Amino acid sequence: MPSVPPPSPVTREAPPPPRVAQDESDVPPWPLWTAPASIVLGLGLGLVASIVVGAVGHAGGSSLTHPTPAVSIISDVAFDLAFVAAALYFAGLQARPRPAEFGFRRLRLRLAVGAFLTAGIGYYVLTAIYATFFKLHGKDKLPSELGVSKSTAALVAAAVFVCVIAPIAEEFFFRGFLFGVLRRWRVMIAGRDIGTWLAAVVVGLLFGLAHTGSASPQYLIPLGFLGFVLCLVRWVTRSLYPCMALHAMNNSLALGINQLHWTGGEIVALIAGSFALIGAITLPLSARTAAIT
Q: What gap in Å lies between CA 272 and CA 265, rounded to an integer?
């Protein structure tokens, strides 16, 4: 009688390992080629959106060469959102992107405030030295184009765009997506990987160039440095919130001091209101993310 081998012990497959939180690596899985592709797509979508908005405004009585504040604001919002759409498109080619991959992560108040103050003080000190050395003068073109002095409605709309929408959209694209992609660079010098530093420099330069049409040429270098500093904040804190806060404060100061000549209390109220709106819009995106210490 042939012997029958004893039954093999029942084995169960081990459960798949849990997905590693992006907080640990903080480098999203998007390939490097999506960085230039997103810039090209964002520019294309932005130009098309601006042309459409201008044409619709012209049909309603707005001038093509000197559009009304409403047309200018809507066009600028559409242009910024075009880059957000481009980033979302390329980020979603492989898998559904998560808010945390763009930097929507809550963090401890001490870390957020420390990074915010350190970056802000460093940026404003160096900008003051630069302004003194090169005798900077002039104003941003954008607020006047948005009609901040023509009506209360235009002022409110321009303030919301400059101090809330632009910081959210630009930080999402430049620090949330573009810096995340370019950090995949591996550039070795003297045995050290400087890819992240190189990414911060490139994103800073692109951030400065992105303001060519709205800021005086003499301010492009400080804006490029601000873009670099914001990348470092994003890198150190792994969160986009200090970046949006510093961006919003800078825009609020520029608008309140240079354009509107507001009092200190009015500017503080503008900054606080900007922070509140940014938080109301973006904090729900990080509701399931543990705070970073």
A: 10
Rounded mean pLDDT, 64-81: 89
Please give the structure tokens belonging to residue 181.
């992609």
Alpha helices, DSSP H, located in 189-291: 195-209, 220-237, 241-253, 264-282
Strands 188-189 and 192-193: antiparallel
Distance CA 104, CA 240 (A): 6
Of residues 106, 102, 244, 104, the one with CA closest to residue 181: 102
Q: pLDDT tens, 55-66?
A: 999 898 888 888
Other beta carbons within 10 angstroms of residue 223's beta carbon come to: 22
The span from the CA of 183 to the CA of 16, in Å, is 28
- As a whole number, mean pLDDT of residues 173-178 equals 97
Helices 69-91 and 152-160 sit at what angle, rounded to 10 degrees? 20
Spatial separation of the C-alpha atoms in residues 167 and 216, rounded to whole Å = 19
Tell me 188's DSSP state: E
How far is C-alpha 23 from the chain's CA centre?
18
5 pLDDT band, cuts 50/70/90, is very low
The number of beta carbons lying within 10 Å of the beta carbon of residue 145 is: 18
Q: Which residues pair with 292 in a beta bridge?
A: 107
- Tokens standing for residue 230: 């914001």
Which amino acid, residue 41? L
CA–CA separation, 63 vs 103, rounded Å?
40
Single-letter amino acid, residue 173: F
**Residues written for the chain:** 293
The residues near 253 (Cβ < 8 Å, ≥ 6 apart) are 267, 271
Contact assessment for residue 232 and residue 212, using Cβ atoms and an 8 Å cutoff: no
Higher pLDDT, 14 or 244: 244
Angle at the Cα of 252 (from 262 to 62), degrees rounded to 5?
A: 90
Structure tokens, 265: 């209390």
C-beta separation of 32 from 181 below 8 A: yes
